[in-house]
Amino acid sequence: MAAIKVRVGQSNAVKVISSQGGGSISAQNATNVIGGIASVTQMQVTGVSTFLNNVSIAGVTTLAANGGITTTGGDLYVGGDLYVDDDILFDEINGRNLNISGISTLNILGVTGITTTQHLLVTGIATIGGSTINDGTFEQIKVAGISTFVGQANFQSHATFQDNDKIKLGTDEDFVLYHNNSNAYITNNTGNLYIINNVNDDDNGDVVIQAKSGENSAIFYDDEGVALFYNGVQKFITTNDGLVISGIATATSFRGTGNTAASFPLGLTATNATFSGNVSVGGTLTYEDVTNIDSVGLITARSGIRINTGGLVVTAGISTFGAIATFSNNVFVDGTFTAGLIDGGSFWWQNQPLNKN
Q1: Cα dihedral 132, 133, 134, 136 sign
Q2: Which of 4, 124, 165, 348 has its CA at 20 to 30 Å from residue 145's CA atom?
Q3: Any idea what the Cα angle at residue 124 is, between residues 120 and 130, rounded to 5°?
Q4: Full-prediction pTM beyond 0.70?
C-alpha cells in the first residue's frame, strides 16, 4: 500500500509519513519551515525525535512505556504534578521547595536555604559544623523539638549548652549535669556515684580536686594514699600504717576497736596535754625534768611512793599514814610532832637522845 504523506505549514515544511495499514509514522524535516500544527493520534518513534520548538500535549503522555530511555537535551518544564511510579535518579537538582511525606534516603544532600523534613535517614557520615554545605555537611542545624540518636553521635568540635540547659543521662533522668547563671551542678538520683580514673598501673594517674585553680584541695593517688590540703598545704595523708597529720588534731573523743578505749601501741607524744577526767596508767609513769606536780585533790599511790632526791615537803595540812611508814634515814620535824604511840628505835631532840618513856 502506498505511503500517506501529510504536509503541514508551507510547502514541504513537515512531512508525516505513514502506511495505510497502521504501520509506523515518521516525521521528516523540510526546508523553509515557518510553522504549523500537526495533530497525530498515535506516534511510534524507533529512532531519535528532535523537536525544534514547543510541543504541547493535552492528554496523558507515556514516555518509555516498554523500558526504553527518554532523553531531553534541554529544559523540561512540568506545569502540574509529576508522578513517577518507579525510581527517579537526578545527577543534579535545584529547587525551591521539596516536600517529602515519607522516608527519604539521600547519599549527598546539599542545602543552601531552609530544609523542613519529617524524617531524615542518613546512611553515611553526617558532619555538622563544616564550612561548606555538601557531602552531607551542614553549616548549622537547629532542632526545636527532641532529637533522637539511635547510634553513636561523634562531635569533632565543641558542644555548647546555655544556662540551665541540662545533660540528662539514664532512662529516668538519673544523672543530670547543668549550669545556671551562678553555679554548676552534678546530680545523681539513683544508686552510687563513681568517679573512676581508669588506669591499671602505678603511672601517676591520680584524681586531683582543686577548689581554686592551681591549688590542690584533695589528691587521690594512684594505688596509694589520700591527701587533704589547707590553703594548698598538705595537712592529712593516709599511709600503709595509718595516717599522718601535720598540725593540731582536735577531737571530741578517741575510741578503739569494738567500742573500747583508744590504744596507742607505739606511744603518744604531746607537747601539752590537759585531762579533764581520770588518767589510768597500766605501766610505768615516768616524769622527766619535772619540778612540780600540782594536784587539786588527793594523790593515791597503790604500791608506794619512792622519792630519790629532794625529799617530801608538806607545807600545810595534815599528813596521815594509815599503814606502816618506814624511814631508812633521819626524819626532821620543824614543828610539833604528835604521836599516839612511838615504839622502838632511838629518838633525838636537839641533838640529844630522848628516852622513849
Answers
A1: positive
A2: 124
A3: 85
A4: no
